[in-house]
Amino acid sequence: MKIEELKTPCYVIDEGRLTDNLKILNGVRERTGCSILLAQKAFSCFAEYPLIAKYIDGTTASGLYEARLGKEEMGLSNHVFAPAYKEADFEELTNICDHIVFNSFSQLKKYKDCLKGVNAGIRVNPQCSTQDGHAIYDPCAPGSRLGVTREQFEEEYLPYISGIHFHTLCEQNADALKITLDAVEEQFGEYFSRLSWINMGGGHHITRADYDLELLESCIKRIQDRYGLRVYLEPGEAVALNAGYLVTEVLDVVDNGIKTLILDASAACHMPDVLEMPYRPPLKDSADPGEKSFTYRLSSCTCLAGDVIGDYSFDHEIKPGDKLYFMDMAIYSMVKNNTFNGMPLPSIAIMDQDGECRIIKEFGYEDFKNRLS
C-alpha cells in the first residue's frame, strides 16, 4: 500500500533515506578505518538491523535490554555503557557484550574481577561544554553525573581498562567534536599510550547535509596516527536522520481564539522530544505560522492541555479526515513513546525505495494493559 493508505497513527521508516544515511557512514568507515556503532537509544527498529549491519560494525546499548537486542538482532560488535550496573545484570552483560564502559572508578573496582575477558573502558568528562540551549543533553554541565573528570581519574586502575569513552555532543557538527577532542587529549592524552581504543560517543550529525565530513575524518585520523588507537563512533540520530514519518489524521477543528487541529497523534505520547527539548517537528507541505494562507495550532486528543505540537500554516484549509505527515520521526519516537491516557501506540511500517509500504507491527489494547497491573 501507499503511505496515504495507512491506518493512523503510524510511524513509517523510509528505507531509501535510511540506506542513504548508511552509505555516508560507511564512507567514513572506509576512508578512515574507524568503527561505527548504532546507538540503539535513538533507533531500535530491529526489523532494519539486517540492512544496517551491511554498513556499520555493531550496536551500543544503555543497559541490559538494549544489549540483548543488539546481540540477538544484529550480532556484531556489542558495546554497553550505563551510569551504574546492577549486580543481577552484570554476568549476562559479560556474556553478550565485547565492550563494557564504566561511569566511575568505583564501578570498575566493583566489577573488575568479573569481566571474563571483556574489553573494559572508563567514561571521561572533559568538562568542555559545546552545547547551546539544550542543558538537559549536556553531559559536561556543572555537577554532571556522567563521566570521570581529570581530577577524579585514578591512574592506578589503568591496567584494568583498554579504552576511554567520551560523549558530550548533541545534534552537532564536527567543529564541536574538534573542540571536545582537543580538551580530551589535553586532559587525558598522557594515558593514551597505555590504551588500545577510544570511543568518541554520539551526537555527531554526520548525515546532515551541512556536516563537515572532512573535519570529522581528520579528527579520527589524528588520534589513529598519533596514538595508534582504534576509534569508535556511536551515532544514533545520524543513522536514521530524516528517514521516518509519523502519519496522523485530523479528527476535529476547534476555534477558541486559535484554530486548532485535534489529531490522533500526540506530542506527549508519540513524539515526547517535542515537549522535552522542546522543538517544532518538520511537517510536510507546511510552513511557519502566517507564511501560508491558513494557520493552525496542532494538538492531540489527550486531556493534557499542553499536548501541543506547534503552529503551522498551509496553502489550503485543513478539514477532519485530512492526513498530515510529520517528518524526521524515526529517531527518539518509537523508543520513547508511551500510552498515557490510554492512547494507542502507532503502528510501524516500512516504505521501500519504490514507495510501497508494509506494516511490520501493530499495537492494541493488550499492549496498553500489559504495562499495568
From TrEMBL:
EC assignment: 4.1.1.96
Signal sequence segment: none
InterPro entries in the cross-refs: Ala_racemase/Decarboxylase_C, De-COase2_C, Nsp_de-COase, PLP-binding_barrel
Keyword Disulfide bond part of the UniProt annotation: no
Coiled coil regions in record: none
Domain of life: Bacteria
Record bears the keyword Lyase: yes
Cofactor: pyridoxal 5'-phosphate
Keywords: Decarboxylase, Lyase, Pyridoxal phosphate, Spermidine biosynthesis
GO molecular function, one term: lyase activity
Every Orn/DAP/Arg decarboxylase 2 C-terminal domain range: 11-329
Enzyme class, broadest EC rank: lyase
CDD domains (UniProt xref): PLPDE_III_CANSDC
Stored NCBIfam families: nspC
Protein name: Carboxynorspermidine decarboxylase
